[in-house]
Design brief:
Elements: H1 4-9, E1 24-29, E2 35-38, H2 39-48, E3 52-57, E4 64-68, H3 70-87, E5 93-98, H4 104-119, E6 123-129, H5 138-151, E7 156-165, E8 168-175
Parallel strand pairs: 1-4, 5-6
Antiparallel strand pairs: 1-2, 3-4, 6-8, 7-8
């Protein structure tokens, strides 16, 4: 069993070789006849092939063990994890800030930017910031955000309706899934 010395040094996530403490295991792997074996027989098979016995599924009845080179096995698992992280979608959130009495030109300017953000696949967090006594105009801020969501209904779906959090009223928009941006 090649890996006994390395066992003690590594903090492995799998039990291997002599650390497997069950009477019998289900054996899988290349160049191995699959089936249920007593643990001593499974360890002997792994030793004959100069490989390690690695416990893959400890909760199964009996536990599943694979005959494999443990270091190579760990490398392949890390490689799969890296590939999964690379494929994961990174969500970008762009913020657009309004005042409670934003005029028409500023509104249209910000609407155009929001459309371009959504077409690029980013989420848009639109918010109205209330300063000082302008908190009295909460209803104007809500109307503004609802109008914003309505104007963007072809490009976005509403993820969160306007909610007042402290001095900010926030609206979350996510891009619509179309043929262009999947």
């Amino acid at each position: 069993m090649r890996n006994n010395l390395r066992n003690n040094n590594n903090k492995e996530q799998h039990r291997i070789n002599d650390r497997i403490r069950v009477p019998e295991v289900r054996l899988v792997g290349d160049n191995v006849e699959q089936g249920i074996y007593p643990i001593k027989e499974a360890l002997r098979i792994a030793d004959d092939l100069d490989l390690d016995l690695v416990e893959i599924s400890p909760t199964a009845k009996p536990p599943v063990c694979r005959v494999v080179d443990y270091q190579k096995f760990l490398y392949q698992q890390k490689k799969k994890q890296r590939e999964q992280r690379a494929k994961a979608v990174k969500v970008v959130v762009k913020e657009i800030r309004f005042g409670p009495q934003t005029d028409e030109h500023d509104y249209n300017f910000k609407l155009k930017h929001a459309k371009s953000f959504l077409e690029d696949g980013a989420k848009v967090k639109a918010f109205v910031f209330f300063r000082g006594r302008s908190i009295l105009f909460k209803d104007q801020g809500e109307v503004l955000l609802l109008r914003f969501a309505n104007d963007l209904e072809d490009h976005a779906r509403v993820e969160q309706l306007p909610v007042l959090e402290g001095r900010r009223m926030i609206l979350m928009l996510a891009p619509r899934k179309t043929g262009a941006n999947k």
